[in-house]
Write a structure and sequence with these properties.
Blueprint: H1 5-11, E1 16-21, H2 27-33, E2 41-46, E3 52-55, H3 60-64, E4 69-72, H4 78-84, H5 88-102, E5 107-113, H6 117-130, E6 134-137, H7 144-149, H8 154-179, E7 182-184, E8 187-189, H9 198-211, E9 221-224, E10 247-251, E11 264-270, H10 275-294, H11 301-314, E12 336-337, E13 344-347, E14 363-366, E15 369-372, E16 377-380, E17 383-387, E18 393-395, E19 404-405
């Protein structure tokens, strides 16, 4: 949470942090500006002080929506610098010098936010070379902002829950859309008698997302049969909607303007399911129920990946625990942190570098799955979980988990 930033900066020896770029598509900037709709700005937070938002004059009213102290970039003579300096890089270095002098910042400074990698490399090297009182700091792994964002307060969890409810509504409306079609030769058909396709259904889902006022920056997965057996296959447009085949519907929209995401997956078959699919589905259902009942604060997150592998292996399925290269059975990790990005801290991967433990405020997905490409079916069930300050487990998404959808 944001109140942890000072302590996180202290632990890493940072005198200040700088976040830059636009707000859209830039979770660190969205986080620091409370979602203010800015196209270019800086947030500078000196350790022990409140953050300052440095913005263009033309965006001062949007900046005010952040609730932060606002400084017009013209205070630092930015326009004059661009005219005076023969190289834009020189102007940017001098701009940073003036900002740091004005805010009395010296020492190591962490730089975050989204900017072209090559441009960032050149700029940060120039700052490190020419600003004697500043040491440029970067993180390859979890940044101070990533670490703060890993825990969510009740207001943030409420926003994810609200997006999750809308997402569940879309799943229900999509199922009703499918059920509204006639069946011919074990296929859904449209009014003109032509088969209903994955592409048709994708278009309907896109309309439903728009009608809910949500955004879909990462796309969604609605795939059938063999495609459903490859976890991130979004579905082939020309595939026909057939009865008895597994359909994976994994949908992860967010609030407009780059806000909080929800992430929900349901797997179903229309009309009927084969015995093999029924058995595998029950295993996934039972696994998720066991994991949801097992989460405890203070436990290593990788333990739950280990438990999931043990569970599936006890039911006769291959897993990544015994064969890291397997493309059949259980082939991914149990879940991931969720918030302003679709994948963030904490991680659940079972690797030595994962030292995460379950903490109050963590918000993450629980999504066990089984995949059998050679048998043309895949199954995944996913819900979003938040740990309250008291350590209680709250499932934020609520939609029935029925395998067979009657037509």
């Amino acid at each position: 949470m944001k109140h942890e930033l000072d302590q996180l900066m202290k632990e890493r020896g940072l005198a200040a942090i700088v976040v830059q770029g636009s707000v859209a598509g830039n979770p660190p900037m969205y986080y620091m500006t409370n979602g203010a709709g800015l196209t270019q700005a800086y947030v500078v937070q000196k350790r022990g002080e409140e953050p300052v938002l440095i913005c263009l004059a033309i965006e001062r009213e949007q900046a005010a929506a952040s609730g932060l102290r606002i400084v017009n970039v013209n205070r630092y003579g930015y326009a004059e610098l661009l005219r005076e300096k023969s190289e834009r890089l020189d102007a940017m270095v001098e701009l940073h010098r003036r900002i740091f002098d004005d805010l009395a910042i010296t020492g190591h400074v962490g730089f975050y936010g989204k900017i072209d990698q090559g441009r960032a490399w050149v700029l940060l090297n120039a700052l490190d070379e020419h600003l004697d009182e500043i040491g440029v700091h970067g993180d390859f792994g979890v940044t101070v902002i990533d670490a703060a964002r890993a825990t969510k307060d009740e207001a943030e969890a409420k926003r994810v829950r609200q997006v999750g409810q809308s997402t569940c509504d879309i799943i229900g409306q999509t199922i009703e859309f499918l059920r509204s079609h006639a069946v011919k030769n074990d296929r859904l058909v449209k009014a003109d008698g032509s088969p209903l396709t994955i592409g048709d259904t994708h278009q309907q889902i896109q309309r439903l997302i728009a009608e809910k006022g949500l955004e879909d920056p990462e796309g969604f997965i609605f795939s059938i049969g063999h495609d459903a057996a490859v976890p991130h296959n979004k579905g082939t447009a020309d595939d026909v909607i057939e009865l008895g085949k597994t359909i994976i519907f994994d949908i992860f929209p967010c609030e407009p303007g780059g806000g909080y995401f929800a992430d929900v997956t349901r797997t179903f078959c229309l009309g009927y399911a084969t015995e093999a699919v029924e058995c595998a589905y029950q295993d996934v259902y039972d696994c998720q129920a066991q994991m949801l009942a097992a989460y405890e604060t203070g436990e290593p997150t990788r333990r739950y990946q280990q438990m999931t592998c043990d569970f599936f292996e006890s039911r006769g399925h291959p897993t990544v625990a015994t064969d890291a290269k397997t493309e059949a059975g259980y082939v991914h990790s149990l879940g991931h942190g969720l918030g302003l990005a679709i994948h963030e801290e904490p991680r659940f991967s079972d690797v030595p570098s994962n030292t995460n433990v379950v903490r109050p405020g963590h918000l993450f997905t629980c999504e066990p799955g089984l995949y059998y490409p050679d048998r043309a079916f895949g199954i995944r069930i996913e819900d979003d979980v938040w740990i309250s300050p008291e350590g209680d487990i709250h499932v934020l998404t609520d939609f029935p988990k029925e395998l067979v959808i009657e037509l």
